[in-house]
């Protein structure tokens, strides 16, 4: 069982080296005759928005990695993750604390007749992100200067070493074709207007996504001629398909991970990307039933998180104390509240609340449903009746977004899990005031939190940065709007003759899978 971990020392060492000399790609070149035929993997739902600026993430990032250019990519270095330039660049160098110079490889073609990849595409892609749903990733960037057809400079507004790991390697760092996006109306959804990568993309809603070799691709050949990503909403069903020989790689449920760790199936392997996920139960601070802070605090004290870790996750995940994940600067050692049903009842009495009825919404997945049922029982014990409402993936991710309808007004409680990248800045960006009605579904604002967010971007002293992120999580918790639950490892079961490739947060990169 391979389990890469992220130590603080390892992470800081990797970011300290970012401004070194020009780097080479080091990509392996695989001949076509060495490629596997078909790779069969699981995705948990349809990709609804492939546009990097307006996606949800997850499997949509996985699709971007196959079809769009990136300047940098994650690479495992021993038991840590760092970064390296991709095949798309011949130069990627931090020449000054606020200047990142790049030179693109020659002759990389966009599909559909849109010509070659150019530095102007990089400028268009990154500057449009500053007005997107993922704008926080580019808060440290001012603009991109184009100095030639293939050369340019990313200009930061302040020094921020994790820009490589947080922004350039992750989904928002994808480069799109300027003219193709403009021809598509400025945004795109379920198909790429142009691709520049080893695979083309086609989808059959509700069934699968197929990645096939791109005949115009001149870069390194991927490990497989064809990738079939089957839509399987329940991970248990995907595990059964693997056992039947119908799947080559699937995410593992916690109980199966615990079982296989003791008794590995024949001809199989397990790879764990890391614990860069954080799960919590959120509360809508603007909802009439939850506007009283004492009611929210009562709910915090009423939930037995330890029971959730054992009952829903088979003891395979780490207890969460905030949004900063294990191994990262700013991870909290504990919370300022504890499981205390008597305290919960007392707070409800102080608020003058009795007979409270709430709805808890969750993705319709086994672990989330088990978690919701445990919370339901916990809250019933202090006099709160909870209705659990399972929601499918598509509508779930739109519940708190004002642009998607009026469901945000009805939200009371929900279970939410975000994946993150190896720096605490990434996690905090979703909870600033400007994210209310987008991803800050709890709908609180705090001037100190917003100020600390900006300070965290600019601060280079690690001890001071840590204090910033510890304080930001304390502010979040003090709203009473969060019950922290766990950091779940992203683990994959795969054929023993396949070496899989994952980001630290668990997204798969099929183009970098290898046939052993």
Automatic annotation (TrEMBL):
The gene is ddpA. Residues 93-435 form the Solute-binding protein family domain. Keywords: Signal, Transport. GO terms for molecular function: peptide transmembrane transporter activity. InterPro entries: Peptide/Ni-bd (IPR030678), SBP_5 (IPR039424), SBP_5_dom (IPR000914), TAT_signal (IPR006311). Belongs to the bacterial solute-binding protein 5 family. It is found in: Periplasm. It comes from Roseovarius indicus. This is Putative D,D-dipeptide-binding periplasmic protein DdpA.
């Amino acid at each position: 069982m391979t389990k890469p971990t992220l130590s603080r020392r390892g992470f800081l060492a990797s970011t300290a080296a970012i401004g070194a000399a020009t780097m080479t790609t080091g990509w392996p070149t695989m001949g076509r005759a060495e490629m596997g035929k078909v790779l069969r993997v699981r995705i948990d739902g349809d990709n609804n928005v492939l546009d990097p600026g307006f996606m949800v993430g997850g499997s949509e990032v996985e699709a971007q990695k196959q079809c769009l250019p990136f300047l940098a990519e994650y690479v495992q270095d021993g038991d840590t993750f760092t970064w390296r330039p991709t095949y798309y660049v011949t130069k990627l160098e931090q020449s000054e604390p606020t200047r990142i110079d790049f030179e693109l490889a020659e002759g990389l073609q966009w599909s559909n007749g849109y010509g070659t990849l150019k530095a102007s595409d990089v400028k268009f892609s990154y500057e449009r992100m500053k007005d997107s749903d993922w704008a926080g990733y580019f808060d440290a960037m001012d603009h991109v200067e184009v100095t030639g057809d293939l050369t340019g400079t990313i200009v930061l507004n302040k020094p921020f070493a994790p820009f490589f790991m947080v922004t350039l390697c992750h989904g928002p760092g994808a480069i799109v074709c300027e003219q193709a996006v403009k021809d598509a109306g400025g945004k795109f959804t379920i198909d790429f207007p142009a691709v520049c990568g080893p695979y083309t993309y086609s989808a059959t809603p509700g069934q699968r996504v197929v990645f096939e070799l791109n005949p115009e691709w001149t870069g390194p050949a991927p490990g497989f001629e064809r990738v079939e990503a089957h839509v399987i909403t329940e991970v248990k069903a995907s595990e059964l398909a693997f056992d039947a020989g119908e799947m080559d790689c699937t995410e593992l449920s916690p109980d199966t991970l615990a079982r296989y760790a003791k008794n590995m199936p024949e001809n199989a392997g397990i790879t764990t990307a890391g614990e860069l996920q954080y799960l919590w139960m959120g509360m809508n601070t603007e909802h009439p039933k939850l506007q009283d802070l004492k009611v929210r605090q009562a709910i915090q004290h009423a939930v037995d998180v330890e029971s959730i870790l054992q009952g829903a996750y088979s003891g395979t995940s780490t207890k969460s104390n905030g949004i900063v994940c294990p191994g990262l600067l700013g991870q909290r050692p504990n919370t300022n509240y504890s499981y205390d049903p008597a305290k919960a009842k007392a707070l409800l009495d102080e608020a003058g609340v009795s007979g409270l009825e709430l709805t808890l919404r969750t993705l319709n997945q086994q672990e989330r449903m088990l978690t919701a049922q445990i919370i339901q029982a916990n809250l019933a014990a202090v006099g709160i009746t909870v209705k659990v409402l399972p929601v499918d993936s598509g509508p779930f991710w739109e519940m708190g977004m004002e642009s998607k309808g009026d469901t945000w007004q009805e939200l009371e409680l929900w279970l939410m899990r975000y994946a993150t990248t190896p720096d605490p800045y990434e996690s905090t960006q979703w909870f600033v005031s400007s994210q209310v009605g987008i991803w800050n579904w709890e709908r609180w604002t705090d001037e100190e939190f917003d100020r600390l967010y900006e300070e965290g971007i600019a601060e280079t002293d690690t001890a001071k940065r840590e204090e910033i992120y510890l304080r930001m999580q304390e502010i979040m918790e003090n709203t009473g709007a969060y019950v922290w639950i766990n950091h779940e490892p992203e683990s994959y079961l795969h054929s023993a003759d396949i070496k899989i490739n994952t980001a630290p947060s668990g997204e798969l990169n099929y183009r970098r899978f290898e046939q052993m």
